[in-house]
Amino acid sequence: MQKSFAIDSAEKYFSSLDSLTTLKKDYQAKKELIKGSIYLKKASLQLSLSYYENALQLVDSSSLLADYALQGMGTANKSLGNYPKALLDLHQSITNNEARKDTLRLSGTYTILAQLYQEKEDFDKAKDAINKVFELLKNNDTSRSYLITLHTLANVEAQSGNFTKAMEIDKRGIAIADKIGNTLVKTSFQDNLARCNLFFLKDYNQANYYFKENLKIDKQLNNPAWIADTYINLAEVATAESKFIIAENYLKEAIKIFTESKQLNNALKGSHALAALYQKQGKLQKALDAKEAYIEQYKKFINEKGEQSIAEYNILFETHKKEKELANANLQIAENKLISRQKNLWLIALGCALFIGIIVLRNQKVKASFIENKLQLENQLLQEQAQSQIQQQRLAISRDLHDSIGAQLTFINSILDGLKNLSAQLNDTINKKINTLAEFSENSITELRNTLWVLNSKEIFLDDLKVKILNYINHAAEAKENMQFHFNFEAPVNYPLNSRQAINLFRAVQEIITNAIKYFETRQEALVKNGEKLEDAINILQKEITDYVVLASQKQLSSEESNHA
What we know:
disordered C terminus, mainly alpha, single chain, two-stranded antiparallel ribbon, disordered N terminus
């Protein structure tokens, strides 16, 4: 019952395999392997072989799935009689299983190989393969491969004429089958044992016993083909016992079952046996009728085979068509994936290019900024070095001026002071010239001090100049007691001045004050001589001096210096 359920289940779900779509090659290979196994059990060998070959192309040739395909191909080619190709498939399976150290699969391959050599009647090589199986499964004598190989060994011994040894092997197989409760395996050993009793020992009772034991099991398993096949075996025993009526009934029952189950090839076998039975009895008309029935069955069988071949071809054609459509669909999917991948690669490349460009631009910007800062620092350094050199030159010049001109002017002042002490002994003209010379010397010393002030100052601001001018005016006011100086110096911004601007502005103020003093003394005498009152003369003089100072300022100062003033 278990075997029948497994076959029915496989056939039940067989039609749903094509609806299962997948891109994974392992799953596609499994679908092909299932189809190959089902068609192998249906004896559609060529169709089965094509599915096994498809499965092998989908997987790695050394994988476990590849071994299933190779074993299936070996079995199909063996049944087709293509022994060279079957041997290639099976030896490739052996190589793969040895590499993977898969003893269970390896024993299965040697089992098929033993059956192949037994069918070729190469009994020595068959026994070599059988011994390999027994060696691999020495601790597992209840496995399927072990029992099938044991049955093959019994057949080899029987075909070699060693019926006694064959019967011992069959009895051993029956004992193992009873031990594990496998009635299906038991029937194969009982069938061999019955034939040995029939043809070798001529023990028809024992032959009948074992065939009838198989008939009970066949009916339990509800397998019409096996039941009919056992009826033919029982007919052989009855014929050997010359029980022709019983044999005829067995054969007719077998032909009926085979015909109803549409197993025309087996029905042919029954019709041929029935014709031979009639001929043996001398019933020539019945033998002729049986021959005609045989011919009719044979025609049906040929037609059925033709239809089956066409059906198998259509199935194969539709399968290849679906596979082609699936391959085209997979190709289209792969092309779409490739296009998408190329787009992604282009986008990634573009993104990388933009990223690199941004990095390069940023680096260039940073580099340019660094160079600019470096140039600014170098420029500042050069300016500071230049200022330092200028300052050093100024200090050197101021030291030279102080040491040479300053010393000489001081010496002249000392001489003039000595001459002034002798002024009583000199006339007025000489005294006047001495005073003039003393004033010139004093002015020169003052000028030298101003020059040294400018040279020794690193920075000069407008407030510094204001203090210097204020000191100068204070000295002038002390020298001219009869004159009053009103000093107003307003500067909203403390401008920085260079040395040239500072000295020119100071000299301009100095020149203006000096000229104003001279103009005041000269104009004062003229106004007094003209009989003007002293207050009126002073007012007139103040206005004229103011106008003079403005005019002198415009002439003395440059545009930039006038703005500062």
